[in-house]
Amino acid sequence: MRFLALLLVFAGVVAAPQVRADDDGGRAKHTRHPVPAVVVDREAMPGAPVYHVVCAQCHDKAVFKAPAKSFLSMMAPETIYAALSAGQMREQASKLTDEQKRVVAEYVGDATLAQALRAAQPPMCAKNNRSVDLKSPARLYGWGADLENSHSIPGEVAGLAVSQIPRLKLKWAFAYPAAQRARSQPTVAMGTLFVGSQDGTVYALDARSGCVRWTFRASAEVRTPVVLSHDDTAAMHGHAPMAFFGDLIGRAYALDASNGKLLWKSSAVDDHPTTTITGAPVYHEGRVYVPVSSLEEAATVAGYECCTFRGSVVALDALTGSQVWKRYTIDAVPTQVGTTKTGTRMFGPNGAAVWNSPTIDAKRGVLYVGTGDNYSDPANDRSDAVIAMDLKSGEIRWTHQMVAGDAWNVGCILANDVCPEKPGPDFDIGAGTTLVHAKDGRDIVVAGLKSGHAIAVDVDNPSKALWSTRLGRGGIEGGIQFALAHDANSVYVPVADMQIHDNSTPSEPPHPGLYALDPQTGALKWSAVAKDEHCAGKKDCDAGILSAVTVIPGAIFAGHMDGRLRAYEAATGKVLWEADTAGSFKATSGATATGGSVGGGGPMVVGGTVYVNSGYGIYWHMPGNVLLAFSVDGK
């Protein structure tokens, strides 16, 4: 999974495991490459002593269901303050003064609360424009545009011809108030754009103007897309289509998509204190399938007893939120397997988090997910693997492991006792699987790894890979990160490959850009290598593609880490159009919004308009707080 060590120095040597690939096996080594550090004396902040006296006894000691401070620090200070004042932590904070709640929120959230509270709020729509268009079907389901995660939008939905793409201009800009990152992929349906934000606010915006129809406040950041129901299940029970999403601290939600009313909110989908939801939930036939990930891989400071989390998928009843089934990626509860040289207890097997969105194969009644690495020894056969689960029961139908022996955690960067004795390269399957119907009649699942490999598996004969094509140099922050896409002709593979070498061979240059492969053979059809020509003087700027890409008939839209949003010709890879999202924009609120790196969620194209978030803002990427809409001639 993606780690949180933002200001660390890479060091040490990693022994790479076997990679089932077509060339060098993706073998790699760590080299020393210092990362620029920003020194902030947080312990001098007035909230530090309050935290250490009142909060640390739970949040620094892995008390059951108490998220670690590193986990909480990704929440906006106003979200923390709200939890202390009127939310789920009000009882624990009942003896604190209002000022103490404010300063501890600023200390934990590492930002100024007053600034957040003063931020300009986006305008509400006129009263006669606050209703979603219920007559327009919810045809885009969320993350992958369809249940098979093709990231391919039909022409009648996209409403944008290739000949019109060069005429795209900015229509409006939306500023997330006081945010430092923007990474929830927008979902557009019923004339409305649904999107989450860093402070936990979910917005329903008028897709034409960007004004606000309704808002809902979740407990923590919502980085997943908002996923809509798409059959008559909701209508049969007396309400409009439903909107589903997950938050940073592992809660799943269902709202009435017409007005933002809360229908249900789950408790955490796993009891582990580092549980999070990073991949989009998927709705199908009355159930919501939620991928479960964790931040424990990043909690591995010296002496940490690593590790006890194991990934899972949870099936919830869409109408009630009650759990139908839960299937762990690792069957057995982790047990103690030894101690380090310094006496730290170690547990295993663990990890194999699911930080991507499930792919639904309705024909076979299964879902497919990709897993991340193990966090410590022993590595097992469920990490860095594609797993097929039965939709009705959660039973595991089959597993295809793509990288063997990949046990890794952030302790390997810190060179402490928690790092596995023979650490792997952290080559997770981050990019969600996509189901491709090949022209020869076979159905294949294609997955993308942080090694830079795209690998295909025949779902009816999964014991052996059909093909494996290496496109990127790979690494902890390299390779294929969030999503592949495909149409009837090609599989489109975005490659990040940052300039930071992390665990890749230093003599090999990065290979950032977009690639098109033949779905049946994996043969390269064309490549569009991204040149590092827009990053001069910019911190945390890279040319590659970290985010999901989106296909419309004849073109692919891709957001780059340098802030460029480009449209590529599907047949050749030629750049048809580009815009710089890393600048400043006058927002609908009147505030000045700033873009940055595009990461995580990708562009969406609906009704002739291209929508994209800019400002991924973590893991050495440029921050920002803007959602942009581009239309033909800006109209």
Protein architecture, described:
- There is one protein chain.
- This protein is mainly beta.
- It has one domain (110-130, 142-210, 221-632): Methanol Dehydrogenase, Chain A (8 Propeller), CATH 2.140.10.10.
- The strands form 10 sheets. Strands 10, 11, 12, 13 and 14 form a 5-stranded antiparallel β-sheet that branches. It has a 4-stranded antiparallel β-sheet with strand order 1-37-36-35, with no helix packed on it.
- The radius of gyration is 23 Å and the shape is globular.
Structure summary:
With 635 residues, the protein is mainly beta. It has one domain (110-130, 142-210, 221-632): Quinoprotein alcohol dehydrogenase-like superfamily (Methanol Dehydrogenase, Chain A, 8 Propeller).
The shape, in one word, is globular
What kind of sheet is the major sheet?
5 strands, antiparallel
Supply the CATH superfamily name. Answer: Quinoprotein alcohol dehydrogenase-like superfamily
What CATH architecture do you see? 8 Propeller
Radius of gyration: 23 Å
Question: What percentage of amino acids are in beta strands?
Answer: 25-35%
Q: What is the CATH C level class, in words?
A: Mainly Beta
The CATH topology corresponds to Methanol Dehydrogenase, Chain A
Total beta strand runs: 37
Counting structural domains, the number is: 1
- The computed structural class is mainly beta
Overall average pLDDT: 88
Give the number of helices: 8
Give the terminus-to-terminus CA distance: 40 Å
